[in-house]
Amino acid sequence: MISGIEEKVHPEKWIIPDRVRKLSTSIIREILKFSSQPGVISFAGGLPAPELFPLDIMKKVTADVIEKHGAASMQYSLSQGIIQLREVIAERASRLGSPSGPENILITSGSQQGIEMLARAFIDPGDYILTELPTYVGALQAFNFYQARYVTVDMDSEGMLIDQVEERIKTFHPKLIYTVSNFQNPTGITMSLERREQLVELAAAYDIPLVDDNPYGDVRFSGTPLPMLKSLGGDGVVELGTFSKTFAPGLRVAWMNAPADIIKTFEKVKQASDLHTSTFCQFVLYEFISQGHLDTQIERIKKDYMAKRDIMLGALEEHFPEGITWTRPQGGLFLWVELPKHMSAKDLLDKAVELKVAYVYGTPFFPNGGGDNTMRLNFSNASPEGLVEGVKRLGKLFKDNL
């Protein structure tokens, strides 16, 4: 190092644009910092159950990748993704009612990259995005970077209130409609078939891209399966999918399913970011699926999560005081709790952590403010014993602070 150079360098004076300085850190990541401490029962993150990761199968699959694909698995690859993986994803989408080919699929580094690419491709500062209220906080982070504004639509047990959508479109002219139609994050609510059909028709009538963020669609463990928005709306819908919830999040492999012409746009956007998603991880997913392991893995997950959901719901009934309500999801990883209006889930979090239990308070899921008396609980990651004990501790906390 040049002598005396450290005294001349002042990184704190480097000019960073306001739009970057104003970014907030993910509240979920921040809560995970202390909820991952020993002894803390965490309902905070959207973490899959690690004991369900197919580690033994992965030992064989990774060896098969090296044996079958050799140096190609370690090399640079197409920005759109390796053709083998895009073909099996397209085939699976077609089988589920959304006719697709590999030209419709772009592989991303997690669904979060897909959301960010959508924002980069469509959003100018000040543009409106129409979304449910509440909505996924990770999407808000991506959209906020591009200085989006939000027009929100209320929800009930059947999802977005469609009678509000057309009025919002006429007033605010949103660039995108963003929804999590299946087992929504954060509420766990699933949009009904009638509202799916109505939303698809409205998006088409006003020629607005309809984005269905669908990480949980395969994780239905009760109720009647519904057609995906993509199968109802065809090229009017951009669907985001991921292997993070059905396989393992650490591989960071997800995809976008969209019209081929729009995929070409997203491909250029991706090239400005990371050139391509991990070639090796893509081959691992391809081999895992082509060898028939994915459907078996999904069934394992569904059985485990249904049992955990039922345990949490039973504990809520037993330990939460009157005046508190919650959703009853038919799939996914989360349920949503509403406290009495005078209670603040944010203010109570520190007390909860003192009791060695953590959750995510609801306000970050409300882009225009509100939701102070709400919270999200994850049931996929804790043990059955932890689910009961954690809910019991929260129940005592809420009784003491009613």
What's the overall geometry? Answer: globular
- Relative helix content: 40-55%
CATH architecture level-2 label of the largest domain: 3-Layer(aba) Sandwich
Distance between the termini: 60 Å
Radius of gyration: 22 Å
Chain oligomer state? single chain
CATH class of the largest domain: Alpha Beta
With helices defined by DSSP (H or I, 4 residues minimum), what is the helix count? 15
Structural class designation: alpha/beta
The SSE string, one letter per element, is HHHEHHEHEHEEHEHEHEEHHHEEHEEEH
Task: Tally the structural domains.
Answer: 2
As laid out across the biggest beta sheet, the strand order is 2-9-8-7-6-3-4-5
How many β-strand stretches? 14
CATH superfamily of the largest domain: Type I PLP-dependent aspartate aminotransferase-like (Major domain)
Largest sheet: 8 strands, mixed
What is the CATH topology of the largest domain?
Aspartate Aminotransferase, domain 2
Low-confidence stretches: none
Keywords:
Aspartate Aminotransferase, domain 1, 14 strands, alpha/beta, 15 helices, Aspartate Aminotransferase, domain 2, globular, four-stranded antiparallel sheet, 402 residues, eight-stranded mixed sheet
Topology:
Elements: H1 5-8, H2 18-21, H3 27-35, E1 41-42, H4 55-69, H5 83-95, E2 105-108, H6 111-122, E3 128-133, H7 137-145, E4 149-156, E5 159-160, H8 162-172, E6 176-179, H9 193-205, E7 210-213, H10 229-233, E8 237-242, E9 254-257, H11 260-271, H12 279-290, H13 293-319, E10 325-326, E11 334-338, H14 345-354, E12 357-358, E13 360-361, E14 374-378, H15 384-401
Parallel strand pairs: 1-12, 3-4, 3-6, 6-7, 7-8
Antiparallel strand pairs: 2-9, 4-5, 8-9, 10-11, 11-14, 13-14
